[in-house]
């Protein structure tokens, strides 16, 4: 076993209120420079909808992520030397129109316009060219427009739904939707790293954060094409690629990332997961309907003595292992199995997981009235207003059974808590819901506790950075340089 540590995250979608506070916090800290105006390392989309950039989920357009070729994983886009032929024309590269051309307003016109009978206005101008721009789009342009024919009905995840199932989602126009906050997934099998010809993108060994070395970046932009989540951006001013860095300076000082710290709905959780790097290839190349379970199995039990010994031998500190034992991500993903990866069929093995939304209690509308298919306060899962196929397309590579299991557990928690706090639930229905979900009362209460009433330290379990080890490695490097004249042991070996 090659055990490594990975900082992973969980977003609970039933708690997201779409306030965009996370996006603004990230924007103010990291992407307020020239050339990064259009970058939203953290963005919140409305689903159903086309997302940002437009239709980013459709890899028939963008060719991101990995594909299976004779049971071997290969990048969908051309990689490294093969991709150099497309550097002047890459048909799968998202264009500025897929995002939006950043703009501002020429406010001086309000003060310098000639006298007129009309109120002067500040005309919009491009932040790239400085010329007048006819605004056609912007960040969160489709925010809350889940009933819109231009956005919601063009959602890529509708491809497996028949027209009747699609129409069921729009019986109450703009009432059936949920928010989908997204950041870089810091994947175990990142396509951006594999596609970079200059080797500028790398995955940190100590915590798995994926970063771009700005000195090595040569603006090939293969990373932009290769990332299926479109979370790598090109800075048109500096000529470098940029992406979410998971606020690693904050994490190293024991603070939660800015987007997570400011989250109003408290939907975000962060913790350490231990995984077996030897299994990445097997997970990324397994059958599509096995992807979710295979990814779950790659994460190892941090309480297992054998795992602890192997992790220690591989250089993982005891404090990191202790953080993994307290990780809320471990509970959501492995212990309770209610958090799922977004589009696992991209085969990047992402480390951002989502608790799918249970959404409205009532299911459908009939003759202008809510229709309740069950004898309980809530309707049945199979007749939810949002079809299982839609959620399965997003979170389980089309496997509806996986979604049904997760929603069944969430529904059982609702039944139990309603029975305990309001005492108006039929005991037999509650017992059936608990039995079918496979939860006992203690587990259901634990899910409720971590979902609804967690303290800050329970949502964010951040491992120590161990700067002393980095300083020791630096000293070793300086000593090696003094003895050999080479900057690092690797450069010495290359010199040989």
Architecture overview:
The strands form 7 sheets. The protein has a 5-stranded mixed sheet, with helices on both faces. The protein is built from 21 helices and 17 strands. It is α+β, with helices and mostly antiparallel strands. The chain has 2 domains: 3-258, no CATH class; 265-459, 2-Layer Sandwich (Alpha-Beta Plaits), CATH 3.30.70.20. The protein has helices at 21-30, 59-62, 80-83, 109-112, 163-168, 191-195, 222-226, 248-252, 258-261, 280-284, 291-298, 305-313, 318-325, 328-335, 388-395, 400-421, 427-437, 441-452, 456-459, 467-484, 489-495, and strands at 3-12, 43-47, 66-69, 72-75, 103-105, 124-126, 178-182, 201-203, 210-212, 232-235, 240-243, 268-276, 299-300, 340-341, 352-355, 364-366, 369-371. The chain starts with a strand and ends with a helix.
The counted number of beta strands is: 17
Structural class: alpha+beta
Radius of gyration: 24 Å
**Poorly predicted runs of 5 or more residues:** 484-496
Mean pLDDT equals: 87
Spatial order of strands in the largest sheet: 13-12-1-15-14
* DSSP helix fraction: 25-40%
Q: Beta-strand level of the residues, as a percent range?
A: 5-15%
Oligomer: single chain
Number of domains: 2
